[in-house]
Amino acid sequence: MSKSALAFLLLALTSLLVAITPPLATGAAGDFLGTACATFVLLFILALIRGRRIKFNPLLR
Q: Which DSSP state fits 51?
């Protein structure tokens, strides 16, 4: 896992935990943190896809 993927995973988990705590779960702050969590999850998935190594064998004919 790349460093950026790990960072996005930690950001997503942190924003999710803060979003579901009772004092912040209501109102605009909860909505904002839920949106931030979804965004970070999407960026995490994209970082995983981008970080995948594609092996190329030049000897194939």
A: T
The owner of tokens 């979804």 is 38
- The DSSP output letter for 37 is H
Specify the higher pLDDT residue, 56 or 11: 11
Q: Distance of CA 11 to CAs 24, 49, 60, Å? A: 17, 18, 42
- For residue 9, the Cα-to-chain-centroid distance in whole angstroms is 4
Q: What's the pTM?
A: 0.70
Q: Each residue of 4-29: pLDDT tens digit? A: 888 989 999 988 888 788 775 667 87
Among all chains, which residue has been given the structure tokens 């969590």? Answer: 37
Instruction: Please choose, from the candidates 16, 45, 21, the residue with its C-alpha nearest in 3D space to the C-alpha of residue 33.
Output: 16
